[in-house]
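Same chain as my last thread, 209 residues:
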Amino acid sequence: MAEAGHRALDIAVASLALVVLAPLMALITVAIRLDSKGPAIFRQRRVGRGRCEFTVFKFRSMRSGADPAKHREYVTALISGATAEAGGASGDLYKLTVDSRITRVGRWIRDWSLDELPQLLNVLAGDMSIVGPRPAIPYEVEQYPKWYLRRFDVKPGLTGFWQVNGRNQRTYEEMVRLDLEYVEHRSLGLDISIIARTPLTVLRRKGVS
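reply #2:
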């Protein structure tokens, strides 16, 4: 019964968000295509509930054909705690401060977390929830100690407990611990609270409020 409630919330929020944000998403699509060659939507394999892989959708923020080796090196350093050697993060645990692969429009949509909006389609498809742990890349999971794997007891989310609790001030391990705290205490009330806090968190991170 609880899962049905979570699914109903996901469908309601994702459907409403897609309708309200459709004009913005159309503008982002045009801006990406004008700024650099390649498709507006980027597809990538991620690991979801039960460690099953799925294809995640994002607005493309990098040049087409960008080599993922730099990000893989960075994520490996994050998991080991050696982020200084990896180049640091800018507003997000997973985003490199200096990365020549990122386009001009890509940097802007990343700063405002707008690159994640196409994942509303993943929510409607049932691969993701509005709230949950961040969907991990397979090469991240290869580095995980066993206790990290409890993150995959629930669907990954578009937003989550760690995002609204000091997103860019956390180590990777602290992020995982917050994810596991969410898994342990997951409820509709907690989801609604996280959804309500997410816009303000993004604005505060950008110094708007």
